[in-house]
Amino acid sequence: MSILTSENKRYISSCEFKITSRKDKNFLFNIDDITQFLINNYQNNVYYRNNKKSAYRVLKAKVIADKYLVIFMQYANKAASDPAFANTINGKSRIIKKSNDEGVACSGHLVINIKDNDPLMKNQFKASFEDIQGLSRNMVCCLLNHILSKLKVQDPKDTQKTHTPYVELTYYASNTFEEQLENGKIESIIAYKENISHSCILDDNNDNIEYKEIHKLEFKTPLKQQLSSPFDLIKKVLGISKELGFNKIKITHESEKKQQSANYSMDAQEPSIDEVIKDMRLAPFISKEPITLTNSLSMCECKWSSELIREMIQRL
């Protein structure tokens, strides 16, 4: 897990944090009450999966500057392989054995602006999310909903009805692909395809092991300069990719010395590349922004990173 993450680099995404009631989507929660309940109860709540082999928990939750709710989370997986290290000079390797109750772990941050919400968009707030393998948006929401499931809010219009908050975290896209590519330059374009296969080793027992095979096709961009018509290049790339069976591309774009990347999945049923380009121009550019840190940050920390939190707050 940690081999994919640099100690001095993290990726963050702009998101929308939304709170609703399953009983009434128009019911309004008080964000201050939800925040306080979370802060008071996170220590006593662990969200388990896979027969308690996977554990998700909040390590710390606090409001900063009376405005930003910072949530620091941890994921641990007992079923994951013991972490291994190898000497880059002589190739000698060593494995660190886990204790019985330990699991390979990672930690991540979520920052929510709980004050500057749009009055017309009730119970919706801007958030900055650290995108890290193991702590996906979906699992973060599962963890928070597990903690908040014990909060019951009385409906003021119906004494027989109470509401439990249900949170969702969705990526926020400020630009379409076309708007994003108007300025700056395309740094790289990579096409991907995935094959889901089954092993044959255990077929005698009618027990299949499913695994995923990922192929990558990387395209060289012309001289790294700004393109007058970037979609002409993308159209050629899509044509080659689709012909070779690739169904997803990742575009890394640079503007004002800031790199962002976004994925676009191609529908195998699209009649032509022109139709794909037409759809892609209007598709949201959902990006992950790399943050380079002064201080190194391991994959799993027991304390949150003030430096990373400051960077995340600046983007809210």
The number of helices is: 6
| Low-pLDDT residue spans | 200-205
The rough form would be described as globular
The portion of residues forming beta strands comes to 35-45%
Major sheet, described briefly?
8 strands, antiparallel
Keywords:
316 residues, alpha+beta, 2 domains, eight-stranded antiparallel beta sheet, four-stranded antiparallel beta sheet, 6 helices, 16 strands, 19% helix
Can you characterise this structure?
- This protein is of the alpha+beta class and 316 residues long.
- It has two domains: 2-80 and 95-172 and 292-314, no CATH class; 177-285, no CATH class.
- Helix content is 19%, strand content 38%.
- It contains six helices and 16 strands.
- Strands 1, 2, 3, 4, 7, 8, 11 and 16 form an eight-stranded antiparallel β-sheet that branches.
- Strand 14 and strand 15 form a beta hairpin.
- The chain is globular.
Give the helices and strands, then pairings.
Blueprint: E1 9-21, H1 31-41, E2 46-49, E3 54-64, E4 68-77, E5 84-86, E6 93-95, E7 104-113, E8 124-130, H2 137-148, E9 153-155, E10 158-163, E11 165-171, H3 177-180, E12 185-198, E13 210-219, H4 230-243, E14 248-255, E15 258-265, H5 273-282, E16 289-292, H6 306-314
Antiparallel strand pairs: 1-8, 1-11, 1-16, 2-3, 3-4, 4-7, 5-6, 7-8, 9-10, 12-13, 12-14, 14-15
Report a brief summary of the structure.
With 316 residues, the protein is of the alpha+beta class. It has helices spanning 31-41, 137-148, 177-180, 230-243, 273-282, 306-314, and strands at 9-21, 46-49, 54-64, 68-77, 84-86, 93-95, 104-113, 124-130, 153-155, 158-163, 165-171, 185-198, 210-219, 248-255, 258-265, 289-292.
